[in-house]
Design brief:
Blueprint (H helix, E strand, L loop, with lengths): L17 H15 L3 H10 L18 H8 L3 H9 L14 H7 L6 H4 L6 H21 L13 H6 L5 E5 L4 E8 L2 E8 L6 E6 L4 E8 L1
Helix pairs in contact: 1-2, 1-3, 3-4, 3-5
């Protein structure tokens, strides 16, 4: 999964290495303070930090690109983070994308680089339905494991960036969930790599979740 964008949804410190939590704090602090050299260095050189990582122990879900928008950073910083995989469609806990923050704070020099297509009302309803059905599927697939706190996957990001696939690793599963959009449907493969034949494939639409394959991996 190393080449697949990762959903950094885990916010449960009991299931994360303390070093990871510390790094997320350092990255968030650097982005908050406008220390862009440190931000880019961490995203480039750390095996754990991505351009979309928010503070694990925080509640705002501000990733580096949101702080770029908040601080009015140079365009070159935004371009570099996007080159490193930052998602312009990623929303904060309040539902703001980087472009929303930049415009509200009158940082108009960032408008072009941060602009991402605004989904229609129909698309927003579709993504909301996908999010709910995907989260239900994740809970069903992991019901035998202990409870884990995580931010549910936002399928809007997969659809709008767009991403071929996204990966969400689940603690204790020794595997996780690989998601992609095909023919306007969300396709989800999930498996435990230490259990042969554990793979399941589901197709999610606005109205239903359908199992379409099993027994792989």
């Amino acid at each position: 999964m190393s080449d697949t964008p990762i959903w950094p949804g885990l916010v449960d410190t009991e299931h994360l290495k303390s070093e990871f939590v510390d790094l997320s704090n350092l990255l968030a602090n650097a982005a908050r303070d406008g220390d862009w050299d440190t931000v880019i260095e961490m995203v480039t050189e750390s095996a754990w930090m991505t351009a979309n990582q928010w503070r694990v122990t925080g509640s705002s879900w501000f990733a580096p690109l949101h702080q770029v928008a908040w601080n009015g950073a140079p365009v070159e910083v935004a371009e570099k983070l996007i080159e490193l995989g930052a998602w312009r469609s990623l929303r904060t806990a309040d539902g703001d994308r980087p472009i929303d923050i930049a415009l509200r704070r009158n940082h108009l020099h960032l408008q072009d680089v941060l602009t991402v297509r605004t989904p229609s009302e129909h698309e927003l309803e579709k993504y909301a339905a996908w999010d709910k059905r995907l989260d239900d599927l994740i809970k069903e697939r992991t019901s035998v494991l202990g409870p884990v706190k995580y931010r549910p996957v936002t399928t809007e990001v997969i659809g709008l960036e767009p991403l071929e696939h996204m990966w969400f690793s689940y603690p204790g599963m020794y595997g996780g969930f690989k998601m992609g959009v095909h023919w306007d449907r969300l396709v989800v493969e999930s498996w435990c790599r230490v259990v042969g034949g554990s793979g399941l494939a589901h197709v999610i639409t606005k109205d239903r979740t359908v199992l379409v394959d099993s027994g792989f991996c």
